[in-house]
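Q: Here's a chain of 185 amino acids. Please give me its 3D structure as tokens.
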Amino acid sequence: MSRRKKKDRQMKIFVFGGVSATADPELLHLGERIGSAIAVAKHTMLCGGRTNGVIGSAIKAAIAEDGAVIAVLDRSMMNNERLYRGIRDVQSFETTEQRRNYVNQEAERFIALPGGFGTLSELTDIIERRRIASDQKPLMLLGPAGFWQGLQVMVDSMYSGSLISLKDRSLFRYASTPEQALDAF
């Protein structure tokens, strides 16, 4: 299959990020831009389905572009008041582990947006699953300049200290624009 045809094919992209209602407007705008870009490219966005924050902005923009959005929830996330009302497709699971297994099986690509400890938990789980998996599903960390810098310094330190391999160091890449994030796929 040619590179061009592969890029034209619709993908399922798991997008995750912060849900804080008080997130920085620059981060909310970044969420809007990636949600819109995914929908315009005719990809399907898998996500946690929250109304607020960076991920809420991504969902709102994707739905505004008539994009396909699938909320993937576990029991702890089933509060309908926090679920974005425009989402028509919801996959629900009893446990977080079942939810994460589904996401890792269904998603072909992963995009981490800025977020807090929940985002960090999701990110480290995906990194570990990518590390031990035989597939090479890409993971992109999308944020404004400097957002992921602390993580990048830590990963570089782990590598220089011989705590991780070069392969592990390369499990994910960084992007500062939605275009960079999607073009890398």
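Q: Can you summarize the key feature?
A: Residues 25-40 form the longest helix (16 residues).
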